[in-house]
Each structure stands twice: as structure tokens, then as C-alpha cells.
């Protein structure tokens, strides 16, 4: 198979370069047009984001829990490529690691000072409870179901059916050979563009928080200029890492991520308000499960409130824009897993970690605000990215812990961007598992350029806006992807059942033939004559 760049590479590259040039020359106009498109999308299709994401969660659970769950993503009996803990670490790090660090305090405190739908007294106990509930919801099962669906579709096609690891290949069961033509190329181009914007959002969030952390630890200034310099520095590191093979590059950085994240989590849990954290986590889990359906489908047609658009739809869109990247990366590292193991591993374990993470950091911030008079809510209102580091001021060893948190954020950014370069290289190199170095470098530079333009255009607002817009077409594509995957699984299940039926029939035929041969041998042995009727009577 030729690995030379084709239509997908050139078209995606040109589209993104045009975006970078336009954004660099007219950043204010870019933000204005993006906001107008966002208003149109959320007004007319906001409901679709909610229904689609909820449907993806139900679909993944149903597939894993049924007979399809026993199908292995690879040859029957094939062992997984990575150990379970390493596998989970790579999923978590390449998934939403940067977002978890950024929003762990910022989201609960944002809901605390401005409760959803104005349904509670700001900065009161009910607002605190609602803040934790919605934080778990936004980082819970729905978010990871997006990744699980795309990852499952690609892993099944790549390792079970031995087809190239492209998004378009997931549609072969419904589109047939048309995936090799313009339709398939368009699907892959859409996946590339969506991935670049999704990862650029994460790069931007990470850079903004690194800037805040440097301000808290070293007193550096906060602004776009500083953020662009930080982005350039991070880019140099992850571009160098992208030159290493996947097994020796991302794997070890992911392991370091998990160890450092676990250490910081344990430190804050035990050095912070431990009893409050455990109680708040228990309460939030109960609230989450009790209100999951209502939160999943809530809209505000009677009040015109835009809270759902600013929070829930943004999160779902961000996850959807990440789905081709994270899903493809998870598929790449999941060879040998069963569908059941894959789905519950991708949806279950990261959500459990997210719950503990948000309860520890967000719960600590709420405790300090409610019972120790900390002005963390004001810090969030002033600069959302500073919330985490403001919380660390109320723990011992602030400077050391703040420095380690900075390292963690940088590692998460490097892992996410590095993983994305591999996936984008795969998408634009006909699905090869180890794309060429020049391809990985090219897409790394493109990601950094897009992130830089978004920071210039409006910082956090621009990042959120572009995420929602980029996600919409791919969300529609994912609906048809689920249909195509189900058709493929049904075809395999029918083949398995047919094979089992033929095997049973063949076995019964052999048994019958053996019985017949046995009877013939018994009748032909000398000295054995059939008894005459009535002789022994």
C-alpha cells in the first residue's frame, strides 16, 4: 500500500491553512462570524446534541452487554497489546486530561457562584450540591461514550476485519466500495478538520492554565503574548516527542502522567478536607444517577436561558470534536480486547477517575469557600483558569504542589498533542498504524497554528465556539457510524451462528455415521447370529 499523501491530506491541509491565514489576518472578524454560526447552530440544533450524545451512551452499553460483547477486537484468542493499567493510563491521558485539570475547580466554582437556571441561591449549600452534580454529569458517561463509539467502530474494522484504520472504513458495511471514492475522502477530511479543532481547543485551554500557573508560582504576567510563547515552547517539546515510536513515546509520558496525577490526587485528598470530600462525593454520585435522564435532555424553551448552550452543549460538542482523535487513538491501543472489555473500560474506569478527581479538587474548593471564607468564587469570576492554583494556596506546600501541577498540565498537553499527531498521520496516510515522521510533524505544526489563531481571536470564548461548530457535522456522521457498526456486528453474528449450526449438523452426521458403522460391525462379527423369534420363550 502506498503511504504517499493523497486527497485527504492535501484538502485537509489547505482548508486548515486557509483558516489559519484568515484568523491571523482578521481575528476579530473570525470570532464574530463564528459566534453568528454558533447562535444559529445552538438555536436550531441544540436538541440534537443532547439526543445524539445520550443515544451514543445507550448504544454502547447495549452492544457491550449483549452477545456482541464477546467478540474480540482482533483474532480469536489474541492477547491485548498493552497491560490493563497502561491501557487505562493512555486512555485517560490522551482523553480529557487537560480538561480535567482545567475544569476540576473552575466548573464547580462557576456553578456555585452562578447556579444553573438560577435554581438556587448563589454561593449557598444548594448551589454547592448542584455544582458537584453537574460537574460529574459533564465529565461522566456521556462524554466517554463519544470516544467509545468511534473507537469501537475503528478497532473492529482495523483489527477484526483487517481493514485500514480510517473513519471511512467504518461505513463500508452501508456504503460499500463508495468509501474508496469521494464520499470516503470527504468523511476522512471531516474527521481531520474536527480533530484539529478539538485538539486545538485543548491546547489552548492547557496553555491558558499554564500561564495562570506560572503567574501563581512565579509571578509572570497573564496575557495572549505570554500564552503564545508558552504554546511555542510546548510545541517544541511535543513535536520532538512525536518523532519517537508510539510504544516508547506516548506510553512512557502517559505512565508519568498517571503517577504524577495519582500523587497529587492523594496529597490533596488527605491534606485537604478529607471527610468533606468523601461526603460530597457520595452525595454527588447519588444526585448524578438520580437526575441523569433529566440533565441529559433538559432545554430552556420557556425562559430563553442560554445556560445549556454555554455548558452542556459546549461539553458534548467538545467531546464530539475530540471523538475521531481519541476514538482512533483508543482503537490503536486496544487490539486484543473484547468489545465488552473495551466499552466498559473506556466508559467505566475513566468516569470513576473523573468522579474522584472532581470530588477531591472541586470539593476542596467548595469547602474552603463555604467554611473558611476563601474568595475562590471571586477568583473564578476574575480569571477562570486561575481557580485551581488559587485553591492550592489553602493547602500546605503551595509552591511545590503548584509547580508539580504545572508539570502535570504540561505533560497532559504533550500527551494529547502527541497522540493527535499519530492519529492525524493515520487519517491522512490511508490508515497506517505508524505514519511517517514528516506527516506527524506537519500535523503537529498545524495544530499549534490553529490553537494560536484561536488564542488571538478571543481566548477561551473562541476555543469554546469553534469546538461546538466543528463538532456538529461529525456528530451527524457518528449517528450513521453507529448504524454501520451495528450492521457489521449483525453480519458477523449471523456468520457465527451459521458456522455453529453447520458444525452441529456435521457433528450429528458424524455421530450418526459412527452409530451406523457400529451396528454393521456388530452384525458382521462371526459367531453372532440374531436370535430366532420365540426360541427362549
List the helices and strands and how they pair.
Elements: H1 7-25, H2 27-65, H3 84-94, H4 97-113, H5 125-138, H6 141-160, H7 172-175, H8 182-218, H9 224-241, H10 250-271, H11 274-296, H12 307-310, H13 312-332, H14 339-371, H15 376-382, H16 387-392, H17 398-427, H18 437-458, H19 460-524
Helix pairs in contact: 1-2, 1-8, 1-18, 2-6, 2-13, 2-14, 2-18, 2-19, 3-10, 4-5, 4-14, 4-15, 4-17, 5-11, 5-14, 6-13, 6-14, 6-19, 8-9, 8-13, 8-17, 8-18, 8-19, 9-17, 9-18, 10-17, 11-14, 13-17, 13-19, 17-18, 18-19
Summarize the structure.
77% of the residues lie in helices and 0% in strands. It has 537 residues and is an all-alpha fold.
3D architecture notes:
It is a multi-pass membrane protein. The chain has a single domain, classed as Amino acid/polyamine transporter I, CATH 1.20.1740.10. Helix content is 77%, strand content 0%. The protein is mainly alpha-helical and 537 residues long. The chain has helices at 7-25, 27-65, 84-94, 97-113, 125-138, 141-160, 172-175, 182-218, 224-241, 250-271, 274-296, 307-310, 312-332, 339-371, 376-382, 387-392, 398-427, 437-458, 460-524. α1 packs parallel to α18, α2 (27-65) crosses α13 (312-332) and α6 (141-160) runs parallel beside α13 (312-332).
Amino acid at each position: 500500500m502506498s503511504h504517499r499523501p493523497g486527497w485527504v491530506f492535501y484538502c485537509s491541509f489547505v482548508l486548515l491553512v486557509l483558516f489559519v491565514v484568515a484568523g491571523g489576518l482578521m481575528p476579530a472578524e473570525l470570532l464574530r462570524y463564528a459566534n453568528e454560526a454558533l447562535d444559529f447552530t445552538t438555536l436550531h440544533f441544540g436538541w440534537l446534541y443532547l439526543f445524539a450524545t445520550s443515544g451514543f451512551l445507550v448504544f454502547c452499553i447495549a452492544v457491550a452487554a449483549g452477545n456482541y460483547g464477546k467478540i474480540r477486537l482482533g483474532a480469536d484468542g489474541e492477547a491485548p497489546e498493552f497491560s490493563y493499567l497502561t491501557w487505562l493510563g493512555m486512555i485517560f491521558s490522551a482523553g480529557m486530561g487537560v480538561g480535567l485539570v482545567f475544569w476540576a475547580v473552575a466548573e464547580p466554582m462557576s456553578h456555585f457562584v452562578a447556579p444553573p437556571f438560577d435554581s438556587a441561591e448563589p454561593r449557598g449549600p444548594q448551589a454547592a450540591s448542584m455544582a458537584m452534580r453537574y460537574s460529574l454529569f459533564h465529565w461522566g458517561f456521556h462524554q466517554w461514550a463519544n470516544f467509545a463509539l468511534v473507537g469501537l467502530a475503528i478497532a473492529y474494522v482495523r483489527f477484526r476485519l483487517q481493514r485500514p484504520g480510517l473513519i471511512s472504513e467504518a461505513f463500508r458495511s452501508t456504503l460499500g466500495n463508495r468509501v474508496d471514492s469521494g464520499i470516503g475522502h470527504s468523511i476522512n477530511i471531516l474527521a481531520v478538520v474536527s480533530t484539529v479543532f478539538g485538539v486545538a481547543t485543548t491546547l489552548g485551554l492547557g496553555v491558558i492554565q499554564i500561564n495562570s500557573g506560572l503567574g501563581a508560582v512565579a509571578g509572570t504576567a497573564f496575557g495572549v503574548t505570554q500564552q503564545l510563547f508558552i504554546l511555542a515552547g510546548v510545541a517544541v517539546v511535543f513535536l520532538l516527542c512525536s518523532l519517537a515510536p508510539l510504544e516508547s513515546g506516548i506510553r512512557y509520558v502517559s505512565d508519568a502522567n498517571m503517577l504524577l496525577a495519582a500523587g497529587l490526587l492523594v496529597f490533596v485528598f488527605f491534606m485537604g478536607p478529607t471527610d468533606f470530600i468523601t461526603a460530597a462525593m457520595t452525595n454527588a454520585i447519588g444526585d448524578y444517577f438520580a437526575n441523569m435522564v433529566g440533565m441529559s435532555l433538559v432545554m430552556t424553551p420557556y425562559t430563553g436561558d442560554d445556560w445549556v448552550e454555554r455548558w452542556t452543549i459546549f461539553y458534548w460538542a467538545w467531546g464530539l470534536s475530540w471523538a475521531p482523535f481519541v476514538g482512533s487513538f483508543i482503537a490503536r491501543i486496544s487490539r486484543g480486547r473484547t468489545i465488552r472489555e473495551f466499552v466498559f473500560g473506556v466508559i467505566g474506569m475513566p468516569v470513576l477517575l473523573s468522579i474522584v478527581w472532581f470530588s477531591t479538587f472541586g470539593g476542596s474548593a467548595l469547602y474552603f469557600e463555604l467554611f473558611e471564607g476563601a474568595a475562590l468564587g471571586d477568583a473564578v469570576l476574575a480569571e477562570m483558569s486561575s481557580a485551581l492554583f488559587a485553591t492550592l494556596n489553602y493547602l500546605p506546600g503551595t509552591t511545590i504542589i503548584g509547580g508539580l501541577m504545572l508539570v502535570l498540565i504540561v505533560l497532559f498537553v504533550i500527551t494529547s498533542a502527541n497522540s493527535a499527531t499519530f492519529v492525524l498521520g493515520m487519517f491522512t496516510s490511508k490508515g497506517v498504524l505508524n505514519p511517517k515522521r514528516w506527516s506527524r510533524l506537519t500535523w503537529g505544526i498545524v495544530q499549534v497554528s490553529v490553537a494560536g489563531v484561536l488564542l488571538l481571536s478571543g481566548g477561551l470564548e473562541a476555543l469554546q465556539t469553534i469546538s461546538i461548530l466543528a463538532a456538529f457535522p461529525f456528530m451527524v456522521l457518528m449517528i450513521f457510524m453507529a448504524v454501520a457498526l451495528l450492521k457489521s456486528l449483525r453480519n458477523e453474528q449471523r456468520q457465527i451462528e451459521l458456522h455453529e449450526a453447520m458444525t452441529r449438523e456435521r457433528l450429528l452426521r458424524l455421530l450418526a455415521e459412527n452409530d451406523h458403522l457400529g451396528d454393521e460391525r456388530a452384525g458382521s462379527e462371526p459367531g453372532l447370529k440374531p436370535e430366532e423369534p420365540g426360541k427362549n420363550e
